[in-house]
Structures are given as structure tokens and as C-alpha cells.
Design brief:
151 residues, mainly alpha, two-stranded antiparallel ribbon, 7% strand, globular
């Protein structure tokens, strides 16, 4: 029987467990579906509260990323060396204290007008998801999107 004091296996002892990856993918997709259903169920996206403090999250997000276009997020700048460093600082600072499960892997729609399709989706941490989606709601980017048609 292995205990927590046993040394970890050598590097070649680690691998991708297909069952773990399948469970993660199913949870990420279920989270995405719940998000679209939530947006489709309210009269105005601005009424949706994603975190305990969406306003504070939006303020911190815009202080860190004042020019980031949340209508159509570009993956390249987010995943560049500088982008990763900026997002890491944001996630370990304001996002960590505001967003539940800020480090969980989550799907993000690149274009606010599109659904969770392979072409319109990237993997981000949940803190990034909450920041972008809260900004989309607060800034009116999600207004007028037919979320019912996207579900």
C-alpha cells in the first residue's frame, strides 16, 4: 500500500490517464453548458452574477488588462510569454481572492457571439473565464446575443 510519504515515481511513471482526462473534459463541457443556459435564462446578461464580487473582479481585470478586447479574445497574446506572466499575476492576486476554483481548467468562448464549438473555444483557468465573462456582462458585450440559439 502506498502512503503519502512514499517517494513519487520516476518521471516515466507519470502518464496521461484517459479516464481522468475524459472526466475533466465532461466536467468542463457541463460547466460550459450551464453557463450558456444561465445566460439564456435571464433577461439581461448584466443581471448574471458569476462570482461573489463581479464588480471587484471587473475592476481588477480592467486595471490589469485595460485594452483586452473581450468581444473577440485573441489566443496568441494570452498564451505568449508576456501574456502568461500577466495572467499568472492576475490569477494569483485579485482572481484568487474573488473567484471560486480560480485554477480549474475551463473552456472560454473566443467570440462572445459564438457558442462552445471547437473553433470558438480555448482552455483557460476558471479565473480567466470569470474575468472575461464578467467583463462581457458588465460592458454589454453579451447584450443581444441569442444564447438560446447557442445551447
Amino acid at each position: 500500500m502506498k502512503t503519502t510519504t512514499d517517494p513519487p515515481p520516476e518521471d516515466d511513471g507519470y502518464g496521461n490517464d484517459a479516464a481522468v482526462e475524459a472526466n475533466w473534459a465532461a466536467e468542463a463541457f457541463a460547466f460550459a453548458e450551464r453557463h450558456l443556459l444561465l445566460l439564456a435564462s435571464v433577461p439581461a446578461p448584466a443581471d448574471v452574477k458569476l462570482t461573489p464580487d463581479d464588480s471587484g473582479l471587473c475592476t481588477a481585470f480592467r486595471a490589469a488588462f485595460p485594452t483586452l478586447d473581450v468581444a473577440v479574445v485573441e489566443e496568441g497574446p494570452m498564451k505568449s510569454t508576456a501574456g502568461k506572466a500577466a495572467w499568472r499575476a492576475f490569477l494569483e492576486g485579485p482572481a484568487k481572492s474573488i473567484t471560486p476554483d480560480y485554477a480549474f481548467g475551463t473552456l472560454l468562448r473566443l467570440s462572445a457571439t459564438g457558442g462552445y464549438t471547437p473553433e470558438n473555444t480555448i482552455l483557460v483557468s476558471r479565473g480567466v473565464f470569470y474575468a472575461v465573462e464578467a467583463a462581457r456582462n458588465a460592458e454589454g458585450v453579451n447584450d443581444g446575443v441569442d444564447f438560446g440559439a447557442l445551447t
